[in-house]
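[retry 2/3] Putative septation protein SpoVG: previous attempt timed out, resubmitting with same input.
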Amino acid sequence: MQITDVRVRKVTKEGKMKAVVSITIDNEFVVHDIKVIDGEKGLFIAMPSRKAADGEYRDIAHPINSNTRERLQREILEKYEEAALETEQE
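[retry 2/3] Putative septation protein SpoVG: success.
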């Protein structure tokens, strides 16, 4: 699996959510609405989710194992940092 595109949409309002990201996998499959969150231990990603009938949020799409999650997070956060630097330079 190769992440072939990462598109970052920065969030301008105050809060913990810093960006919403879409990724393309193998130029064939897109996952929208991955969130970049600024948490207590730094930036992390939250996969797209929806609210279930019991009030809990459930991921719609997510990695099966921790290695894949770490790789996704690393690549997404790298692109987020690049976008943040571009914004600062403008």
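[retry 2/3] Putative septation protein SpoVG: The first helix runs from residue 66 to 89.
[retry 2/3] clearing retry counter.
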